[in-house]
Amino acid sequence: MSDKKPFYLTTPIFYPNAKLHLGHAYTTTISDTLVRYRRLMGQETYFLTGSDENTQKMVDAALKVGKDPIAFLDEIVSTFKGLYAELGISYDQFIRTTDHQAHWPGAQMLWTKLVEAGDIYKKEYEGLYCVGHEAFITEKDLVDGNCPDHGTAPEKIKEENYFFRLSKYTELLKEKIESGEFKIVPETRRNEILSFIDSGLEDVSFSRPRKADWPPGLGVPVPGDSSQVMYVWCDALSNYITALGYGRDDDLYKKFWPGIHVLGKDILRFHAAIWPAMLMSAKLPLPTTLLVHGFITSGGKKMSKTLGNVIDPEDLLAEYGVDALRYYLTRHINPFEDGDITREHFKEIYNANLANGLGNLVARIMKLAEDYLEAGMRPETAEFPKNYTDAFERFEISHAIDEVFRHVQQLDQKITATEPFKLVKSDPEAGKKLIFDITQELYVIGQMLEPFIPETSKKIKEAVISNKKPATIFPRKE
Asked: What pLDDT score was predicted for residue 2?
């Protein structure tokens, strides 16, 4: 795979108005898993994440707690980075949309390209604005007069804005999706966006008047009209290319774009309609793929403070450790559907599959190796199973880790059937050969686990090479 084009993957950039939750942890963890797999296969990678900072939602949150918006931003962004560090997220760059050097030149260049294409115009607009979404919504989106996602009534706003001619790209966008040139995974999301396009794309508001409560340095000015700031689309979505140097030093852009976007289903329309239309207008390549995942519920219900079913990723990390959480998110949540998590199920899975399963297997094998093999073993790197690599190529992350644990189970069964601890006493040479073989197989399992649970992968590989039984990898939880 090392001869393939460099691999570029992005997460959405999240609003820094509050701490990240389990859904954010899920997005970044599966993104990290996909990138680590590509690195494991010898492919050059670039992994981008970041924060969407030029937003009214963030200003409101800062003012509510009596803080300067920029200082508030810096604090929240540090919590993002702290959680990513705890989760083992191996990103190459964290883009901030308030970064005047890294982000603004590219966002403004993209705007200029859209103007040159004749796709930006100004008009007075009246609409319903949801601060939670940082977006205008329509009457038909409302449930009992409220935004269905935030449960709040939108503001009625009348103002003069610049607009983008999204409607112009309806047919071309449909053609790109249907031909597979612009790939949307899974098929259900592809069909959903095609149905949305068939209902007719409307031009979208692309700027907002600069608000009085916004501090200097917040909000990318519209080129040629500093009374307006770019609205979320040309500002936030453009981060995927501005981070690579589009609009300034574009060596990374030339090397890595286009790439793959990982995102939740709630922002599908933005990424599958507005963003590709902007790129087509600017005559830039489209992303290769959108991987669209579902939501994480708890006990079959959306997590909410009212229901008391919110699970903070920090709590799980503190109690079980990073690899236990990464294991659950990658194996027990299907990336193409909504997934569920409860504390009870998490503990049950942890004890069964990690403490009693993988952890016990490592301890058994490494005790035999330590007792009967010479130190300094140099394991051979085996070919990874086709089921494993094929699952990754199809973004079937949970199937890929299922394949690893199928090998864990097979190795466990092999030890039970061959009884190496008895054989090595009755026939030392054959026994040592068997122990060597199963230790080699454990090393390969360790390699295959690297994208999912990198700390455990490292412990297993180091144990095999040093020929020492490690400390308990997953202590049982009572």
From this structure: 46
Q: Which residues pair with 373 in a beta bridge?
A: none
What residues make up the domain containing 351? 343-466
Q: Assess if residue 317 is contained within a domain.
A: no
- Indicate whether 92 and 173 sit together in one domain: yes
Classify burial at 281, counting beta carbons within 10 Å of its beta carbon; exposed 0-12, middle 13-18, buried 19 or more: buried
Q: What is the pLDDT of residues 175-221, one digit of tens each?
A: 999 999 999 999 999 999 999 999 999 999 999 998 887 888 899 99
Question: Could you read off the pLDDT of 133-157 as tens digits, one per residue?
Answer: 767 787 877 888 888 877 888 888 8
Structural domains of the chain, count: 2
- The C-alpha atoms of residue 470 and residue 448 are separated, in whole angstroms, by 19
Cα 372 off chain centre by:
43
Same domain, 290 and 348: no
Residue 451 lies in a domain: yes
Examine the domain organization and report whether 138 and 240 are in the same domain. Answer: yes
CA distance 411 to 444: 11
CA separation for the pair 447, 457 (Å, rounded): 6
Has this prediction a pTM greater than 0.90? Answer: yes
